[in-house]
Amino acid sequence: xxxxxxxxxxxxxxxxxxxxxxxxxxxxxxxxxxxxxxxxxxxxxxxxxxxxxxxxxxxxxxxxxxxxxxxxxxxxxxxxxxxxxxxxxxxxxxxxxxxxxxxxxxxxxxxxxxxxxxxxxxxxxxxxxxxxxxxxxxxxxxxxxxxxxxxxxxxxxxxxxxxxxxxxxxxxxxxxxxxxxxxxxxxxxxxxxxxxxxxxxxxxxxxxxxxxxxxxxxxxxxxxxxxxxxxxxxxxxxxxxxxxxxxxxxxxxxxxxxxxxxxxxxxxxxxxxxxxxxxxxxxxxxxxxxxxxxxxxxxxxxxxxxxxxxxxxxxxxxxxxxxxxxxxxxxxxxxxxxxxxxxxxxxxxxxxxxxxxxxxxxxxxxxxxxxxxxxxxxxxxxxxxxxxxxxxxxxxxxxxxxxxxxxxxxxxxxxxxxxxxxxxxxxxxxxxxxxxxxxxxxxxxxx
Length: 447
Fold this sequence. Notes:
- The protein is α+β, with helices and mostly antiparallel strands.
- The chain contains 12 helices and 16 strands.
């Protein structure tokens, strides 16, 4: 399949849903009675059955499930049968791509001569294939049109996180009487609230995916991270947890004449609130409303609207500034559309596209605290050290005549082993630290 087509799968979204009011969604679902497994046992139809009839139904259901489970385990526990399934599936996928006009694989193809003693000639393999061919259900077969719904794994499919990362301190609020309320573990956990007029509104979950532009093809997008937030949290809570390189660029060190003499990570010693205040600002565009950072004077929303006023009215989009800032607008007060990309701008000219994947109620397996949650981060492909060619580079050295190129990417051990430059050349050398991705590799992430 064409590379442009496969990349286009991540660049096109939709069709978008109708605007969904999160507040109305919570009000509507609050009146719905959710059934559980215990409710099925209390059903009048089950209660009217005799003990023998109940035992017969239970034995029939458990017997069917046990038969299916044992049949599947028997096949996958056999290396020869499982290898046969993998091989036939790969052959079917390759046949679909070849029939759909996909590009031929490069390189010389190896000739494959099946061993009659270990391949399809084995009786157990033939018996399995006969069972599969005897299945009358044909809708699971792969035809030529299946190529439009298949692609090879991409880099954005891999997850750099070993487990879900708790990126905040948000606490889930749910009704204690609801069977969907998670069970809180730990002695210090806050119990769920009982429904009352004065109690806070239960939370809904909003899953958001952040897409970035492909650096070498700006017209196409790729998925970078995915986050889960509570409806009681604000847009600013979401913006702060986005792992973006633009928010971790080192600060410039300027001399008395205003010349840049180096870079440093002084912001690491600041607390979270101070560090957030030093950012250039941010803007999020949702359903024709621009949500700014709420700074005194002109924030990003005001600057963006003033820029749009320079374009003709018939060509420019109809956008107004929201009456609330990012830190004041909660997800419960918004109307969102599923599969609709929303535009985000921060740190000067860094763009992101935010897509709402789902809006749902709580589940008993959801964690009770730690929101926002970061559930996916695409691994970062860093440059390798030019000296050792073994580990990722941490520094870029500019103007050092001892190196073969300028700038030159080096890891910290290689730069220490080289030692400082000569005094007459020290003024021409500048060492710039690369982005450290601290927002990704904080607690809960896999380094």
